[in-house]
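Quick one: structure for this chain?
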Amino acid sequence: MFNWWTFFFQIVNFVVVVYILYRVLFRPVRDMILKRRTEIERSRADIEKERSEAEALKKEFEEKLREVDTLRKTTLETARTEALKERERILSDTKADIEKEREKLRKLIEDERRRLYEEVKKKGIELSAELSGRILASIVDSTIDRILIHKTLDRLKSLSDSEKEEILSGTDSCTVRVGSAFPLDDETKKEITRIVEETFGCKTDSEFTVIPELIGGIMVRIGSRVFDGTIKGNIDRVVERLRG
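Got it. Here's what it folds into:
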């Protein structure tokens, strides 16, 4: 049989239990949930803030990376440009140095070639002169010697008055020194002395010397003036002209 009092007390007990649970558990749990929700909201806000800051840092970092990359590219380009300029400068300097050394070498070779040419030329002239002297010495006889002597005497007789005065002004005597390749006979000596006296108008004191190296002809010295009609003298003059 249904008992209303029992039902009533059960209802009262349920209400009391609910009240107790509300007072003891529900409010703390609700407060805890609200507190937790608040903390979660705060954490979410902090997370959002941190995310925003992280995004900002990321953007800043990416911007820095772009700046660094731009700086790297600029630095590399500048370094490459400077390296190319330095390379061109070094190549230019090296080329200039090589050209200078080449010019020095060319000049050295040219100087050496000229020196060798002059040396060979000198040796050739000396050998030619020596050979010519030997050949002429082997063929010169008294006839050729006589012809050469007369050519020298003709040169004396053809002197102008001014030349005679110039020759005599340089000496206080009329001494004549004659060198010949062969011994001169008395007649030739007298002829030489006579021509000198007639030419210069003074008494002549003549000295005669045999010099075989003259090869042929005579060499007449009056004061400081020398009239060289010898073969050696002619060879020497040719050699001097060839030497330039």
